[in-house]
Structures are given as C-alpha cells and as structure tokens.
C-alpha cells in the first residue's frame, strides 16, 4: 500500500549501498513533479520560500515521529499541535454524493497550493497512526538506508524496506563478515 506521508518523508534519500552519499530531493523540481504525478495532484507552482520551509519542517517532523513510533513511543503533544496546524489549512467543504445505497455526506476540497498538499500528507500520517497499527511503522535496518515504511507482513517482522535490495545487501554483508571471521580464526 502506498502512503503519501512515507514517500514525502523519504525524500531525504540515503545511499542504501553504503557509499556515504545522501541527497535532499524535497526541493528539487523533478522530484516535486514526480510526487505530484504519483499522487494525482494537478501541477501547481513551485513552492514559495515559506512553503518550502514548511515542507522541510514537516518532513523532518515526520522522520522524527516515525522513529519515535518505531521505538514504541507516543507522539509528543507539540507534534500533534504542529500537525493540527497544518491540517487546519486544508480547504474542505461538505458535499452530498448520491450512492447506490443512498446519499452520503463527504468532505471535498480543491488543491490550491503546497499547504493543501502538506495537509493531505499529515491526514495520511494521522490515519496511519490512529486507524492502523503505529507499531508497524519501521525504519529500514540497513543503517545506510534508513527508509521509512509500514510493515504489512502477517508476522510483523519486516526489517528492510525492500528484501531484494536492502535485505539481500545485508545478507551478503553478514555472509562476508562470517567468512572473514572464519578465515581469521
């Protein structure tokens, strides 16, 4: 399941292979366009300096909150206040929709700027924390990667963001370390 908040938080990219490189993609136009396309937002203007600062603050807060939740801690009151402030900027209006089963009252809105998108990101994060199991929020065990993900496995033991990439890399590293240790003995 794709989560807009984890993709947003993971815009701070680290070289998972361990070459020590990292890249902050959040303010890159190419990454922003990819993000808008992926989540089917209309293309809006580049973020203003103030919006860019709020984007960075939210991303850093989500990374910190994910780490806290992964350790079994609760969200801090100041984080909840921060997220509420962002969500309060969302432009929503009530709308009656006709369904096969009858009428439904929903809340719709339009995306006007980056603050609306930030509100959507926080709403998705809030749904994960409140409606799902926050103890399933993980940070990849590959120290070089540190990717944030939601563990959807049945046994709740997923350790890596991707078993084929980080998982295999770490398996090879463990194997090589064991062989090296055997040769030294």
UniProtKB/TrEMBL annotation:
Gene3D superfamilies cross-referenced by the UniProt entry: Jann2411-like domain
Taxonomic superkingdom: Bacteria
Pfam families: ABATE, zf-CGNR
Domain Zinc finger CGNR: 136-179
InterPro entries: ABATE, ABATE_dom_sf, Znf_CGNR
Record-given protein name: CGNR zinc finger domain-containing protein
């Amino acid at each position: 399941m794709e989560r807009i908040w984890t993709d947003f938080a993971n815009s701070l990219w680290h070289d998972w292979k361990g070459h020590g490189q990292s890249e902050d993609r959040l303010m890159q136009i190419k990454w922003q366009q990819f993000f808008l396309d992926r989540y089917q937002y209309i293309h809006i203007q580049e973020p203003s300096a103030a919006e860019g600062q709020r984007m960075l603050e939210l991303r850093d807060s989500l990374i910190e909150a994910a780490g806290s939740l992964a350790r079994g801690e609760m969200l801090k009151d100041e984080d909840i206040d921060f997220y509420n402030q962002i969500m309060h900027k969302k432009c929503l209006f009530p709308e009656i929709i006709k369904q096969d089963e009858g009428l439904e009252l929903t809340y719709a809105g339009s995306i006007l700027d980056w603050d609306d998108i930030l509100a959507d990101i926080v709403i998705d994060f809030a749904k994960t924390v409140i409606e799902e199991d926050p103890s399933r929020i993980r940070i990849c065990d590959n120290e070089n990667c540190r990717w944030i993900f939601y563990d959807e496995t049945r046994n709740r033991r997923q350790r890596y963001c991707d078993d084929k990439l980080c998982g295999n890399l770490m398996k090879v590293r463990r194997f090589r370390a064991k062989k090296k240790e055997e040769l030294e003995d």
